Amino acid sequence: MKSGWYLPDFGADTASRALYVETVEGLFTAYQRTTAAVLGALRERVARPEAMKPDAYERTLKARAFDVARYLLPLSTNTSLGQIVNARTLETQVSRLLSHPAAEVRELGRKLREAATGPAWNVGERAGAALVTEIARINPALGEQAGEMLTREVKTAPTLVKYAEPNAYLMETRKVVEQMAAEVMGGAAIAAAPVVDLVERTESLEVEVAATLIYWGSDYGYRQVRDVVAGLPAARVNEIIEAGLRHRGRHDEALRAFHAGAALRFDILMDIGGFRDMHRHRRCVQIKQGFTAVHGYETPESGDAAGLAEAGIVGDYQATVEGAHAASARIAAGTAQEAAVSALYALPLATKVRCLFKMDFAEAQYISELRSAPAGHFSYRRVAWEMYRAVERQHPTLARHIRVTDFEQPIDLLQR
User: Using CA atoms, how far apart are residues 384 and 380, in angstroms rounded to an integer?
Assistant: First the structure.
């Protein structure tokens, strides 16, 4: 991969470092092998229309092959990201990043803080300096004045962001909630759950807040957690809520788990690659659980994702993913300072992740319509379709107004 990949600091644990490198490089090799095999299978199955130019045909099929092969990319894959943000939001973001359990994310927070409090990049710096030199040659005094105006350093947000520090409320509460979640759930087996579970509202607002906190600190589905919490004494429910606020500082907003009362709650269990696309939706509250291999992984082998089966490499794909999961578990048991967190980088994007999406009907309508469109990736198209189906079962009159694309119907693979 041209973008490269991230290598955590394993310290003296050279065995874990070697296994990590071997696993990540193996995933990239499998990714390239899968891309070539699926592309070949697609060329045989999908004929190029006469009206379509050869380069456009090839580009489209390569994109479809990537849709399948990307499941093998590891979480360590470097990704470019740009954002436009105001200083107040950046301050909160930096604080949250500095509080993260992963060293890479904490370092990103530090670099963001440095970038925001230091001189901003001036795209016209060279041209401005040349103009100042020319002005000074004609009139030194005017050149000095122009230099102060055209070449001075400008700091983006020095006042707000320079004081951003790790958020003790977030870090302490995360530990407390994870411990309470283990106590409340009592080691119960994780119940089977569909890709999308629209959890109907039967509980009080207090139970919803407490259940969301426990969900955040565990690997269980929201319905299973909600049912357990709903059966607790009121005093115990209040203890969970109090634990979520105990360490709140004077200027801290309540955790995202306290954003309760939304009409629709979708508990979604999907591959990490598809989730990263769904995660972009901001008109909703998202309570994401931690990355883990406990939920297994997705194997794209039906409908418009049939390239694996057609290429005859389903077995190779599954062996690669399962090998990466096994290696991640061994790395997590190592002696590095952050072994458990570092091990997560070796998980492929096929690994399932669980997230609770809370929203109103308009947002559910928007996501279902947008993400089910034929040009999208089959992973989130399936999720958008299941979201629609869940709304249809519980609110059939409203569902009639959602312009969804039926995921179960074949699509034109050349349509992007």
Answer: 6
Q: Whole-structure pTM over 0.85, yes or no?
A: yes
Q: Is 171 within the bounds of a domain?
A: no
DSSP 118-151: SBPP-TTHHHHHHHHHHHHHH-HHHHHHHHHHHS
Domain membership of residue 161 (yes or no) is no
Contact 320, 346 (CB under 8 A): no
- What residue spans of 231-336 are helical by DSSP H? 234-243, 272-278, 307-311, 314-332
Structural domain harbouring 8: 1-75+305-346
Final residue belonging to a domain, choices 346, 377, 401: 346
pLDDT tens-digit series, residues 303-340: 566 678 888 999 999 999 999 999 999 999 999 999 99
Q: For the chain, what is the radius of gyration of the CA atoms?
A: 25
Q: Identify whether residues 129 and 61 lie together within a single domain.
A: no
As a three-state string, the secondary structure of 152-203 is CCCECCHHHHCCCCCCHHHHHHHHHHHHHHHHHHCCCCCCCCCCEEECCCCC
For the beta sheet containing 264-271, the strands, ordered from the edge strand earlier in sequence to the opposite edge, are 196-198, 264-271, 352-359, 285-288
Could you tell me if residue 385 is inside a domain? no
State mean pLDDT over 239-260: 95
- 246, part of any domain: no
Contacts of 86 (CB under 8 A, 6+ apart): none
Tens of pLDDT, residue by residue over 373-413, are 988 899 999 999 999 999 999 999 999 999 999 998 887 77
